[in-house]
Every structure is written in C-alpha cells, then in structure tokens.
Amino acid sequence: MNFPSLFFSISCRLPLLNIGRFFFFLAFSTLSLFKANSQEVSEEFKRITDSLIKAAPVTYQELDSILNPKRSDTTYMRFFDMESARKKYFIGQSYALNQLGRKYRDISDYSKAVALHEKALQAAVDANNLEFRVYSLNMLGVVYRRSDAIKIALDYNQEALELAESEENPSDGLKRSINVSLNSIGNLYSILKQYDIAIAQFKKSMALEKELGNKLGLAINYQNIGECLEYKGELEEALHYYRTSLDYNNEIDSDKGRVICKNSIAQIYIKQNKLAQALEILEPNLLAAESLGDMSIIAAININIGWALMELKQYAESEKYLVTGLEMSKKHHLPSYIAHAYNYLSKLYTYEGKYQNALEYYQMAEKFNEEINSEVNRRYINDLIIKYETEKKTNQIEALARENEFMNLRLRKKTNTLIIGALGMALLTFILYILYRQKELKNEKQILTLEQSMLRSQMNPHFLFNSLNSIKLYIINNEKKNAVHYLNKFSKLVRKILEASSLKEISLADELETIDLYMNIENIRFSHEINFTVRVDEPIDEHTVKIPSLILQPFLENALWHGLSSKEGEKKIHLHVSRENEKFIQISITDNGVGREASERIKESKVLKRKSIGIDITKERLANFSKDFENSFQVEIIDLYDSNKVALGTKVVLHIPTH
C-alpha cells in the first residue's frame, strides 16, 4: 500500500515538537469537545429545528442550506437527531447522524463513526429516501477505506453508485453522491495500485463536478489524480495537479484541503531532494495541521517529519517523530502508517549503525507489509475480479459463443463470403475514388474561380481605362517621354499580372516589382502626391521567399481609394517586410489616410459607391492556400489613432508562413 501524500517537515533550526506539547493539544481538544457537548442549545436553533421538522424537506441540499453553520457542532446535531427521531422525521435524523459520523471519522474514531453512519442508513431506509441512502452508504465506504478495510469499503461505494445510477433523472444531490462514489472507488483502486483505473474513475467524477460547478469536488479529484501520478513516478505532472487542487482549496477557503495539498507539494520536493523548498512550505503548516484534529493526518505528518529529518541526518530528532507517529498509528489502527513507521525506523537505525534494532524494525515492517499486501491481493482477486467484473466476464463468454457460431457459419459459406467481400471492397473502393475525385474537382473549380476573380480584380476595366486615359493625357500634352515611360510600365504591369495569374506562388521580389509598377501607374491619377516606400529587413532574401501571387495589390488599392483619395495634404503608404519568426514573415501596409470610419461615411454619401471585392477574394485565396502549409495565413486590419482618438490611418498586417 502506498503512503498517502500527507508528508510534513520542519526546518532544521526549528525546535522539536515535544511529546508533552502534543498531549497538551490532545487534552485541550478533548476538553473543548466536552465543553461543546455540555453547552446549551440556543432558543434560535430550537425554533429552526421545529420549523425544519414541520416543513420536512426531502433533499440534502435543502437541509444543509439551513444547518450548514452548525453541522460540525456535535451538541446541535445530537439535538436535531433526537428531535427528528421523536417526531419521526427520519430524513432529518439521517442528516444529523451522518454529520456526527463525519465528525468522529475526522478524529479517527472509526468505530463510533461506523455506528452513526449505520444508524443514518437505517433512518434513510425508514424514510424511503434514495438520496440519503446513497449518501449514508458512501460515508460508510469512506470510513472503511480510511481504516484499510478495502473489501467492505468497496461494497458500500459500489452499492451507493448502483443505487444512484438507477434513478432515471437524478437530482443534484444524487449527482454529487455519484461523484463521491466514483471518487471513493478511485481511491480504492489507488490503494490496490491500479493507478490507471483509479485515474479513469477520478476523471469521470471530475467531469460531473464541472457540470455541477462543485469546486470542492474538483479540488479533491485533482488531489487524487496527483497522488496516482506520484505513485507512478510522474512527479512533475503530479505537482501540476497538486497545485491546481491547492488553487481550488484557496478559492473555497478549505483549511484541510490546503494542509493536504501543501504537504503533497512538499512531498514531491522531498522526493526531488529539494529539501529547502519543502521546508519553506511545511514550517507554517504545522499549527494548521494540528488544529484539524484528524489523527490520521497528524500521524502521517509525524512520520514524515521523521523521514525528512533522517534525510537531513538529524537522527535523534528523527527518531522522536517516527516513534510518535508509530504510537499514534497503533492507537488509531492505521496499518499502512504503522508499516511505514517501522520501515523508516529500520532505515534510521541502519544509518546509525544499530543493526540489531534495524533488523527488528525491518522484520516488523515486512510483517505488516506482507499482511497488508496479501490481504489486499486476496480481496482484489476474490472480490474485485470475481464480483465486480462478473458481468464483464459473462459478456465476454457470450461474445465468444457468438463469435464461434459466426466462425462456423463463415466456414460453411467461405466461398460466397469471399466473393461478396471482394465485390464489396471493389465497390467501396470505386465509391471512395469517385468521392475523392469529386472533392478534387470541387477544389480545382474553387481555385480556378478564385484565380479568375483575382485576375478580374487586378485587371478591372476602371483601372485599365483610367491608366490608359492618364497616358493619353501625356500624349495630348506632348509629354512624349512621360507617355512612353508610363506606357512601358503599364504594358510590363499587364504582362506580369497575366503571368502571375497562372502561378500558385511567386517570389517576394516578383511581387514587390509588380506592386511597384502598379503604384507608379496609380500615382499618375493622384498627380504624383502619393509617397510610396518599401522596406525589406536585411535577413530576408526576396528571391527565395515564396508567397501567393498577386496578394498585395488589393490592399494597396484599398489604401489608395478608401484611405488617401479623400485626404488633404501629405499622402503616404509604407510597405514593410520583416521576419516574424522561423515559420512566418510579416508584411505590413500602413497609410496615413482618413481611417475606416471616415471612409465609410464618405462612401455612404456618394451616389456611385465603389465596391471593393479584391480583399475578400484575397482572404479566400489565402485560406485555400493555407491547406498546403503547416501554419495558417492571417490578416489583421488595425485602425491607427493618436492620443486624442483622432484617426491617423490604417495598417494591414499579413502573417505569411514560409513552410
């Protein structure tokens, strides 16, 4: 059996927690409990009790919403139990008895806890209330698990789970009970070292707890999964789960949860030989652990303090803690703790050279381990496999019988089956091929449509007409040199657009040359007012970087006609190519135009509205091209403002993968 993750340690400089102090704490706790039991029940609580018994709520949640502040007070719960029994309100009696049972369980008085939970179960049966029957069965399972009675615990938790799942539309209370059952069964599998099965149970429970929004349940499940991972030796993963559990416990302000999680985290540090970090966590946790009053936790802490001190070679102090933990484990019948205490004492005496003592404690540890392991194995083989997997085995036998019958049938009709199978496979292959070809043709058609749309957007009649008209003006004005210069540029641009339209991708250098030609032509219409600049960062080789063809022109056109055409004064467009990381280059196009909001207002006021479809086509092309790349293309459009929220223009950023 693996040691529960309740490890605790203190600094080498901290004085020993002497035994006198410990027994003073026990005496003080007992005296406090006695005083609590002797106190008077307030008149207000008596009125609450009368009202609840008259109203007779039937769910745990209804009762707990009223009684929660007093459910840990044994005096009040005994009073509520007696009044409920006297007036035959068995549901209330079951609630009170279960709370009393939890109180005794948490101070490791397991015999009293069992007696109270059994009475609570009987009261739930008398009330014919499924929710409280399931709750009581689960509580009994938890108590028996704490005392290492694996078979009995499993019986109770399995019965609780089967009862809860028999309800077609379970209440939230029953759903919580299902989670408790799954969690408890997971803990039992963990004790049996069936860690993967245990984790599966905890994850089922966790999914249901998320549905209910129960943060306490999530904290418990994260803690339990962490323990399983720790037992498997996956320490870093376990540490992640412990920290998540601690976050939930801090959120719900659970003192006990915090103590357990911090000890678990410290335990990982001890196993990783990070003793200083472990001690930093555990030192302030000492008083918090004592105030809980749970003897199993305190026993484990004492044993683990001894273990930690032993690793620090503080043998005298280590022995005192180990002996204290051993005595407490014996007193409260904690077999696994007893075995671990013996084991550490044996190791301690070996370090000190006291080999006779070391041998004696080693033999006692082995005896306890053998008893625990043989008992666990016997129960696991005879009970878990036989009882809880009977249905699975029966199903397997039935499946084998059906398979045998089917095999005989196959032998008799082997020839026909082979022929039918071959024809079926051929038909299926043909159908799959047809579907594949249809998909390919659809993709090819989509690409062709996009290419045609792209070409139309690049070579739209307005652009061609206006460009030729601008060149014509040079001719009319007898500016032959300019006319020839721009006519050459125009023809070169048309040729490059036509060439690029047939290619899936081109070099960055070709794309930049194309847009330079485009901007030269368009600038004629703007009376050369556009200041267009291009900057390519040094590490980028324009000739080796490949990008989809003709993707920049629609963004430049948009900047010209929507951003700058309505702007007075200086007009700028800056194109910047940079290396974003190993897998991406970034192309940004920044204009100092009127901004998108102003552009929309201007557009709405015009009688003839210019509709830009080039950008939408480009985005579709990018999405289609990205299928062939490991990473996806992305386009960002950013509105630029100054500190007074005045528009400064627009920035388009293209994130283009290079492989």
Write structural notes for this entry.
The protein is an alpha+beta fold and 659 residues long. Among the domains are: 42-188, Tetratricopeptide repeat domain (Serine Threonine Protein Phosphatase 5, Tetratricopeptide repeat, Alpha Horseshoe); 532-657, Histidine kinase-like ATPase, C-terminal domain (Heat Shock Protein 90). It has 27 helices and 7 strands. It has a 5-stranded mixed β-sheet, covered by helices on one side. A two-stranded antiparallel sheet has the order 1-3. The relative contact order is 0.05. The chain crosses the membrane at residues 418-436. InterPro entries: Bact_2-comp_sensor_kinase, HATPase_C_sf, Sig_transdc_His_kin_internal, TPR-like_helical_dom_sf, TPR_rpt.
Brief account:
By secondary structure, this protein is α+β, with helices and mostly antiparallel strands. The protein is built from 27 helices and seven strands. 71% of the residues lie in helices and 7% in strands.
SSE blueprint and pairings:
Layout: H1 19-38, H2 43-55, H3 60-67, H4 74-86, H5 90-106, H6 110-127, H7 130-146, H8 150-165, H9 172-191, H10 195-212, H11 215-231, H12 235-252, H13 255-271, H14 275-282, H15 285-292, H16 295-311, H17 315-331, H18 335-352, H19 355-388, H20 390-412, H21 414-458, H22 461-476, H23 480-500, E1 505-507, H24 508-525, E2 530-536, E3 546-548, H25 553-564, E4 571-579, E5 584-591, H26 596-605, H27 614-625, E6 634-641, E7 647-657
Parallel strand pairs: 2-4
Antiparallel strand pairs: 1-3, 4-5, 5-7, 6-7
Helix pairs in contact: 2-4, 4-5, 5-6, 5-7, 6-7, 7-8, 7-9, 8-9, 9-10, 9-11, 10-11, 11-12, 11-13, 12-13, 13-14, 13-15, 16-17, 16-18, 17-18, 18-19, 21-27, 22-23, 22-24, 23-24
TPR repeats: 94-127, 179-212, 219-252, 339-372
Organism: Arenibacter echinorum
Domain Signal transduction histidine kinase internal region: 451-529
